[in-house]
Amino acid sequence: MDETSNYYSLFNDEIEGRLDFKFNHPNYHELFEKLKTIETKHLYDILLEPIIKGVQPQYDEDENVMVIKTVDMKNRFIDYENTLKTSNEFYKSNPTGHLKLNDIIIASIGVGSVGKIDIYDISDPAIFDGINLNVLRIDTEQYDPYFLMYFLRSLYGQEQIDKVIAGSTGMIYISPDYINNLIIPDLKKPLQEEIVKKIRPLESQAFRLENEVNVIINKALEVFLKELQIKSPIITEKVEYYTKFVVGLNRLDFEFNNPKYEIIDRLISESDVEFVELLDVVDFLRDSRNPMKTPNEEFIYLDISSIDTRWGVTNPTIMKGMDAESSRIRRVMYGGNVLVSTTRPNRNAITIVPDELNNQICSTGLSVLKCKQDMNNRFLFYALRSKLSNLQFERYCSGSGYPAINQEIDLPKIRVPKPSPDKQLEIVEIVDNILKEAVEKERETIMIWKEVKDKFESLIFS
């Protein structure tokens, strides 16, 4: 088969258990031939128990037990700091959803998410989202969990996962039966540990660079606020308080009325820059289109998980109209619009729509903002990602176990700075210049992560 060709033919006796085009694609033949050059076994040979499907979690932000979701998986590490929470009672009553030290978590549902692999490397009590994730609990006496994690992230693990993905473009998944049958190297544990030890220094280097990138990004957003005479960093401690019940308040939930949020008014009052409600500087677009009306036409789709929370860049998916069964796949976006996730907006799933995504579709869980004439979209992008906006998002997201901001009532009330158009451009240029260093370090980090994969793959065959 030609490398650039996507056509092939097979005899009947060459077709495997499924008839779909991708499952039988000859490209995978080379992969399995390569694996035949070493001793292998199936994943189920090292599992202590069947693949764990977990439970559907309940959320309670006032509690302390972590809930690990797909969005917390970075395919390099788990973002423990930003997880949702559940109660200790729910945790105790649902033992099948418990995470244990060295559990391997695999994202098994969702465009752009399937195949993410991370390891639970702490001992804190936690539960996982059993709807979108599966857990592999392996026999650590015979197999090193980090070795398995690296293998499943490697070309030889990811291609096997890619081969067995099922479902439509809009809702793809991996069946636990296929995960069970993944082929893994059958190496003695001391050799596995030796390979892991050889790539750990590279991984540590990558993590160090990633931390440096985070420091620069945070510095850039602090400088953004300083240019507006907003003192930084903004620190608020948890405050317990008592108040009389007053009929007629806009919101009665405890957190919304917490005195700690008085810092928002104080910081804004100290600035010489005018602050206005979001509604004054943007139009909230609610244009919609149902792709299913043109079932054979392709379109580009962007959902919340497609937005990188670190940089605000997008990783969209190409879909066909027939696959847009979910009612969430309906909102129209345009080039230059600012998108804000209404679910956990303080995670900074905020982006500017690239021109190539003009007139394409995004999730209804994203609010589409069109800047008015005197508001620069990149300035607004930085403003909404700043700590001052995050604090306001946090306040308005209260009152629910699953934090989300109402995009009709509360999101328009978020107060943002509105300096002159020239001052906006000046501040954007200052922030962009600071971020140039972070971009260079990010490129270096990507190269090191590639080196980690390449070195691991070469070691398992040597």
Architecture (CATH level 2) name of the largest domain: Alpha-Beta Complex
What's the main sheet like? 4 strands, antiparallel
Q: What is the gyration radius calculated from CA atoms? A: 24 Å
Count of alpha and pi helical runs: 10
- Backbone shape: globular
Q: pLDDT below 50 for ≥5 consecutive residues: which ranges? A: none
Assign the CATH topology of the largest domain: Adenine-n6-DNA-methyltransferase TaqI, Chain A, domain 2
Mean pLDDT: 89
Which CATH class of the largest domain is shown?
A: Alpha Beta
Find the structural class using helix and strand composition. Answer: alpha+beta
Strand neighbour order, sheet with most strands? 12-19-16-17
Number of strands: 20
Helix content: 25-40%
Classified in CATH, the superfamily of the largest domain is DNA methylase specificity domains
State which percent range the strand residues make up: 15-25%
Q: How far apart, in Å, are the first and last alpha carbons?
A: 28 Å
Domain tally:
3
- Can you write the helix and strand succession as a string? HEEEHEEEEHHEEHEHHEEEEEEEEEHHEH
Task: Please explain how this structure is put together.
By secondary structure, the chain is α+β, with helices and mostly antiparallel strands. It folds into 3 domains: 12-187, DNA methylase specificity domains (Adenine-n6-DNA-methyltransferase TaqI, Chain A, domain 2, Alpha-Beta Complex), CATH 3.90.220; 190-219 and 420-462; 231-270 and 274-418, DNA methylase specificity domains (Adenine-n6-DNA-methyltransferase TaqI, Chain A, domain 2, Alpha-Beta Complex), CATH 3.90.220.20. The chain is built from 10 helices and 20 strands. The strands form 7 sheets. It has a 4-stranded antiparallel beta sheet with strand order 12-19-16-17, covered by helices on one side. Strands 14-13-18-15 form a 4-stranded mixed beta sheet, with no helix packed on it. Strand 8 (166-168) and strand 9 form a beta hairpin. Helix 1 (27-35) packs across helix 4 (155-164) and helix 6 runs antiparallel to helix 10. The longest helix has 41 residues, at 421-461. It is globular and about 70 Å long. It starts with 26 loop residues before the first helix and ends with a helix. The model has no long low-confidence stretch (mean pLDDT 89).
